[in-house]
Amino acid sequence: MLIVYGGLFFAMFFRIFFIQASGQVEGQALAAKAAAKYERSKVITANRGTILDRQGQVIAEDTINYRLVAVISPKASEGTKTLMHVADKEKTANILAKYLPVSEKDIFDKLNTKAKNAQGNEIRQVEFGAAGRNISHLVMENISSEKLPGIIFMEETKRFYPNGIFASNLIGLAQRDTQEDGQSRTVGKMGLESIYNKELSGTDGRVQYKSDLWGYLLPNSNKMVEPAKDGADVYLTIDKTIQNFLEDSMSKVYKKYNPESMVAVVANPKTGEILAVSQRPTYNPQDGTGLENSWLNQLTELTIEPGSTMKTFTLAAAIEEGKWFPNAKFQSGQYMVGNVPIGDHNDRQGWGPITYLEGIQRSSNVGMAHLLKLIGDDKFISYVNKFGFGEKTGIDLPNEATGQILDKYPINRVTTTYGQGSTVTPIQLIQAVSAIANDGKMMQPYVIEKIVNPNTKEIVKENKPTIKGKPISKKTSKEVRKILSTTITSENGTAKDFASQEYEVSGKTGTAQMPDPSTGKYDERGKNYFLYSFLGMAPVEDPQLVMYIAVGKPKLGPTEVGSEPTSIVFNTVMGSSLKYLNIKPQKIKKTKSQTMVNLKGQLVEDVEKEFGKNGIETVIIGNGDKITDQYPTEKSEVLSGGLVFLKTDGDSVVPDFTDWSLRNVLTYQTMAGANIEINGEGYVQKQSVKAGSVLNGNKKIILKMKKPEEHYK
What we know:
Elements: H1 2-22, E1 24-25, E2 28-29, H2 30-38, E3 39-44, E4 51-52, E5 58-71, H3 89-96, H4 104-111, E6 125-127, H5 137-144, E7 151-160, H6 168-171, E8 173-178, E9 184-190, H7 191-195, H8 197-201, E10 205-210, E11 224-226, E12 233-236, H9 240-257, E13 261-267, E14 274-280, H10 298-301, H11 311-320, E15 329-331, E16 334-337, E17 340-343, E18 353-355, H12 356-361, H13 365-375, H14 377-386, H15 410-417, H16 426-437, E19 442-443, E20 448-452, E21 459-462, E22 467-469, H17 474-489, E23 506-513, E24 530-538, E25 545-552, H18 563-580, E26 593-595, H19 604-613, E27 617-621, E28 627-631, E29 637-639, E30 643-648, H20 662-672, E31 675-679, E32 683-687, E33 700-706
Parallel strand pairs: 4-12, 27-30, 31-33
Antiparallel strand pairs: 1-2, 3-10, 4-5, 5-6, 5-7, 8-9, 10-11, 12-20, 13-14, 13-25, 15-18, 16-17, 19-22, 20-21, 23-24, 24-25, 26-29, 28-30, 32-33
Helix pairs in contact: 3-4, 9-18, 11-13, 11-14, 11-17, 13-15
């Protein structure tokens, strides 16, 4: 016995000695086994960085919400005096149905779940899918106040976009995603959220400590904390106020005209900063609505034919080369390139011999062909390259397209002068026009102002204005601006709809044919199948903003033209933005007006003179001396340039109806008792009875109305 027990004692002694010396049992490290059993760790999730505008206003940030969990296993309440599981399922279902977007029956069925998990164990808790996630703090508090046993809330973070649709295709979106390590994190899926996901995500921290079998911290154990490093904050060049101006205007036009697409961008030409950008269709990153129709960032990834906006740069090249002769004339209508005819937009009829200045104002394609001949093909293409077309701008966004400048054949070079055939991106147009607006210095566009580490306040990255090139001189840029302002102010101008009463605007309209998706060829089905655009700036003397707006395939009314939807967006956004930036208006014109009084019984001659002083035209019905009726009526306001109808006794003569609106025609018809037949819509073009003829109430007067002139091609 002594020998046996002695042997066992020595065996145990040597075993313990070996374990102490090696730290291993059967090839396994005891320290590691102990750590696995008693050491605990918990991830400290880093906050995702915030995306802000140039003024520091939030565009995207993390917010806390809650996930509802129902404990349904009675085992959770064992050994406690307090119910820790859902005991009264009917009551719980009834109350939860008041707060969650799910029926009481579905909640009750969920609470009665009897299934087992993959390991064969009883399911102890259930969730309610989308209805039980993303619960706000207010709803969580309301449910908690009901004191329902077994109902608990798990705190989570969610990406919050407080502005809804707001530069969405630029900002992108981020969503919760389960990673390979099993942790749920917010991950950028699109736009800047995806591009700068690494910078925004930060680094998770960790807490490590020793605990007993029940998870309680062991006495005298060390607790090691590795703090989380929050994600960087990204400051954009976007100005929230200007962006809101743009979004509101885009939404109104999109609703009214239901176009196939829209894209608009506002920039500071002196720095290249993008102040606002929007497109339609778009999506709401907060709830994901519209995502199925809007993946492409049209600002940088869309290539389009620029149409006549390209004439801006053809004009600049001609002036810079000393080949611009504004008063010289050319024959408009048609120009032959070999055997291929190039025509003006009015069915190649043209306007006879016109000056080059008038050619710009009328947006003559033939005028551009003649300018190309003066400039020279190779020299012209060199200017196209200098303005940055055919290559990436280098904007701080991925997947930027280059477009394609066609210059292989003579016909390609001619059509490129007026923006047909060759393709560009909206951001290339913005970069190029910055040279026109910024005294010849072309600025590289950018959207990221700076990236800041919130933990140290260190600026990790900061963009500064970069001169991309100097394609033209200061003198040329000023002359281009002045010439293009006449497209708005001239009687022959194609951009009259873009006139402002407060700021002098300069720019060029464009109309580009769009291909038919079924054939790949240009769609010839009429005015509703064009891309209408405008590339402009203001104020002319020292432009503070440049803007590009394009509307593809709008649903125009019978009398509407392509400049209407584009001008609504441009005029609203440009005017509001300049005022917001405290840019002093250049030309506020006070329009004279006159309040109507009761004119009955007054002499026609005296009243005519009084209205004439304020530039108000009178239409006299009858040949009497005194007024018997009037329109507008007493206390109405009449602006300078308006019409006042004055009725007298005696015979009336037929007026010259030319350019009268339908409203004025109907007013005259009612007051004069004339028999008028109206053909068409818009404004009067012709009349069947000669002006000055005595009005015969029985004789029909036929008025042929015309639609408003198609403002640009």
